[in-house]
């Protein structure tokens, strides 16, 4: 069974950006492991709860087929997190799906892996994407090479399907 790691803030992540792609992946026989800056219970913006079983610094890219950065206000803790940025680079260099939804796209931009890549993000992150060298499109979903970006909660299902398809 393939495994995907979801990098999720300990609080104020966007609930549906987590549980919709997770369900799509699990329905496709993909195991989803949640990593964060702490283990234990994580709380979404609207009260959804999940559990982190892995610290972000302990994520080994060799153990996973893809990495997914979950959006929401809380994801800003990863914008300059050295572990989050290194992981984005490691997955990208291994040509594994490297995905972000909503404002979490800023993580990929700050990791330096969006240079010349068509990408999208929640509108608040537009300037960070452009500064990171991305070709910002504003579309709901962008797939270019092994980079998958989506702009927010309304794109969560299509985002989940795109990540699943990238693992085939």
TrEMBL record:
Cellular component terms (Gene Ontology): cytoplasm
Pfam families: DJ-1_PfpI (PF01965)
InterPro entries referenced in this protein's UniProt entry, alphabetically: Class_I_gatase-like, DJ-1/PfpI, Prot/Nucl_acid_deglycase
TM regions (residue ranges): none
Domain DJ-1/PfpI: 2-165
Superkingdom, natural source: Bacteria
PANTHER family: PARKINSON DISEASE PROTEIN 7 HOMOLOG, PROTEIN/NUCLEIC ACID DEGLYCASE DJ-1-RELATED
Name the record gives this protein: DJ-1/PfpI domain-containing protein
